[in-house]
């Protein structure tokens, strides 16, 4: 392997570039503070959702698990933009109404939710990542959830 | 110009009166409805023997909970927290009414509710009625209740949150299960003042 790399210097350069990029990513993920433009994670029921459901279309708006982080993104904001009342997340919402639910404690919260086949919705609230290691773990977990 | 100068404090007051309530509700610990809608009125049998009509409590902040007296875990915790919050509110507690609506009218008679609630706080009022009446109350508030198991020892899986209704009868907030008495004290104090 080493001999191959010596014979082909471009491979060595490529490996070094990848290693530096990976290290740079880790350093960035560990030392850059976690920030969001808003503390609100917003979900909306668009206009016409009820009609689409009545027509037999499957419409999923809320994921079965919502992930929040204390102090950074710790508010769940639900909006009913449809023309009819809807059970959205834990509550009944009138047309045009919004529901803003703040979280202060890191934990996993279960809500009954008729919008889901399981009848349940989970809000996972992570602790605020305060040091480089926590930021690294937080970003890795977030990336994993995004692809899972 | 002089008139315009005199109008400045008036404009400032108007601006404050428009922004203050919004700022107030922003800091509630509970989930907030915006805009707050009229709390659906209901008339059921009260645990004190009199009809329990929600709109009769206008002028007080109403803390509205749903549950049943055989509930093994959620209801005792919620009611204990509400009783603690009621005590902590001190004199202000007289301006607050806790209403506990049963999701199990089959077993929860008015008398049974009275005895059960008295163990937590003698000022709490319970509500029961026919299965149809209670289903209608639950529907109007988006509360779920599902019988689990058979026989006389069945359980009822039900929504565990608590509604906060303003003095004007507006459904302003929803407190999820798990909040402490201090959170209720915080929010009720804001809604009262």
Properties at a glance:
heterodimer, A: 148 residues, alpha/beta, 3-stranded mixed sheet, 28% strand, B: 193 residues, alpha+beta, 8-stranded mixed sheet, two-stranded antiparallel ribbon, disordered N terminus
In short:
With 148 residues, chain A is of the alpha/beta class. Chain A contains four helices and eight strands.
Question: Would you write up a description of this structure?
Answer:
The complex is a heterodimer of chains A (148) and B (193). In chain A, the strands form three sheets. Chain A has a three-stranded mixed β-sheet with strand order 1-3-6, with no helix packed on it. In chain A, strands 2-8-7 form a three-stranded mixed β-sheet, with no helix packed on it. Chain A is α/β, with parallel strands linked by helices and 148 residues long. Chain A has helices at residues 2-7, 9-31, 49-54, 132-147, and strands spanning 40-45, 65-69, 75-80, 86-88, 91-93, 98-102, 107-112, 120-126. Chain B has helices at residues 2-26, 74-88, 110-118, 131-141, 181-192, and strands spanning 31-38, 43-46, 51-53, 61-67, 96-102, 125-128, 145-148, 155-158, 162-165, 170-175. In chain B, a hairpin with a 4-residue loop joins strand 2 and strand 3 (51-53). Chain A binds chain B through residues 76, 87, 90-94, 96-102, 104, 107, 109, 111-112, 114, and chain B through 28-35, 37, 141-142, 144, 157, 159, 161, 174, 176, 178.
Oligomer: heterodimer
Taking all Cα atoms into account, the compactness measure Rg of chain B is 19 Å
Q: Which pair of chains forms the biggest interface, and how many residues does each contribute?
A: A-B, 20 and 18 residues
Total helical segments of chain B: 5
Order of helices and strands of chain B: HEEEEHEHEHEEEEH
Q: Roughly what fraction of the amino acids of chain A lie in strands?
A: 25-35%
- The overall strand count of chain B is 10
Q: Structural class, from secondary structure content of chain B? A: alpha+beta
Largest sheet of chain A: 3 strands, mixed
Shape designation of chain A: elongated
Kindly report how far apart the N and C termini of chain B lie.
37 Å
How would the global form of chain B be characterised?
globular
Rg estimate of chain A, integer Å: 22 Å
Q: Enumerate the strands of the largest sheet of chain B in spatial order, edge to edge or round the barrel.
A: 1-10-9-4-5-6-2-3
- The low-confidence parts of chain B are 3-24
The overall pLDDT of chain B, averaged over residues, is: 89
